[in-house]
Protein 1
Amino acid sequence: MSRIAYVNGAYRPQREACVNIEDRGYQFGDGIYEVVHLYRSRFVDEDLHLDRLERSLREIRLPMPMPRVALRQVLHEVARRNRISEGLLYMQVTRGVARREHAFPTEPVPPALVVTVRRIPPYPRDIESWTTKAITHPDLRWARCDIKTVNLLPNVLARQAAREQGASEAILFDEASGMVREGAATSFWIVDETGRLRTRQLDHAILPGCTRAALIRELDAEGIAYETGEFSLDDLRRAREAFLTSATSFVKPIVQVDGAPVGDGGVGPVTRQLFAIFARHVQGGDNRAA
C-alpha cells in the first residue's frame, strides 16, 4: 500500500507529494517540526507535543497552520489512511512559499504543513537489547536550541560523527565550560557517582523534551528524587549510569561513552526501573498527569 502524506490541505500518495521550491523551509530552514509516537492508535504525550509546537511557532513568529482541534484531526487521519497503529508521525510547519528574501515575506502567506507517518517496532520488552553507545561532541548549534526548528545541520554532523565511531548518539557539550547539554536528538540523563539522578535544567541551550517532561511527571508521581542542573564531562565520565529519552528512544540505556564503559558497562538499576515505568506510561497513558 502506498504511504499517504498530508501536504497543504490534501492527502496524497507520498511518492506524488511535493512542496514548492520556494518554500522557506526548504530554502532557509524557516520552520518547526514535531515527532510523535503512535501506540495502539493513540498519540503518546500528544498534548505535550502540540504545546511545544505552538510554543516553537510563537518563538519564530509563525502562526499555527490551523486550529489545534483541526490539526488533531489531520494527524489522526494520516495515521488512519496509512493503517498504522504503531509508528512515528512527523509534522512540519514552515513560513510558506514566497520569493527568496531573508526577511519575512512583506505580504502574509499561508504557513505550509506537511504530515507523514511510518511504522516502527513496538516498545522494546528487553532492556538488555535496547542499550546503545555514545560519543561526546562539541555543541556547534545556534543559541536558541529550545526551539524545535528544522535547522538541524549541526545535529546531523554530530550524529554522523557518532556513527563513524560505532555509536548511535552524540552527547553535546559546551566547549568553553565543559558542561554537558543533551544528545544530538535526545535528552540526556546520568546517575552520578553518588547515586543522584540528574538531567540539565531547561533554558535556551537545550530542547524541552516531551519524553523528558513525561518521565519527570512519572518521577514526581512515584516520589523518585532527581535533580535538574548543570553537570560536567567529568561527572559524565564518573557516572554510574547514563540514558537517553526521546519519542524514539523512550528510556534508552547508554553502556559506553567514547569507548569507555559507563559504570560497570551494563544496564544499571535506576535505568532499569525507569524503563519499566515509562513502558507503563506508553502502554497505559498518562492518566495521573491529567
Protein 2
Amino acid sequence: MEIPLQITARDIDLTDAIRAEINEKAEKLDKFYDRIIRCKVAIESPRRHQHEGKLYSVHIYMTVPGTELIVKRELDKDLYVAIRDAFRDMRRKLEDFASEQRSDVKYHAETPRAVISTLFQDRGYGFLTTPDGLEVYFHKNSVVNGDFNKLKIGMKVRFVKQAGDKGPQASTVTIL
C-alpha cells in the first residue's frame, strides 16, 4: 500500500489483538493485489440491540488505480466474524476488479451449425453435415421441442456434438 493502513473505531475500544487481526488481513490483500493505494477500515458498534446484545459493523474503503472499492458489513454479534467477512467480501471485489483490469473475459465457443443431409422419418434418426463435411448422427429424441416430424432435408440446425459408439453424434439439435 502506498498510504499506510488506517483503522478507525467509533463507540468501541480496539484491542491490540483486533488491530493485529486487521493488519494481517490487510497485508494478505496487499500481497494478493500489489497496486492498492489506500485502505481504510472503520469499525463501529452503533447501538446495543435489545434482543441481540452488542452488534458490530465493519466498513472497508480501498482505493485502487481508477476507482474506490467499498465493503460495508453491517451488524454482526462477533467482531472477529464481522472483520473476517468484510475482508472476504473485499477480496472478492478485488478479484473482480483485477480480472477486469487484465481483461479476463470468458468467451463461449459458438454452437456448431449444420444442414440436415439424410433423414429417416420412419426410423427416427438422421444425419447432419457440417460446413467442413463432417457427418453427424442424431436421434429423434435429441431434437429440441420434439420437432423431429417438422424436419426436412436441407434445413439448417444448431447442434451439440458428443462422441458416440460409431462416431460423432448430436446430443441436442435445434432448428434455426
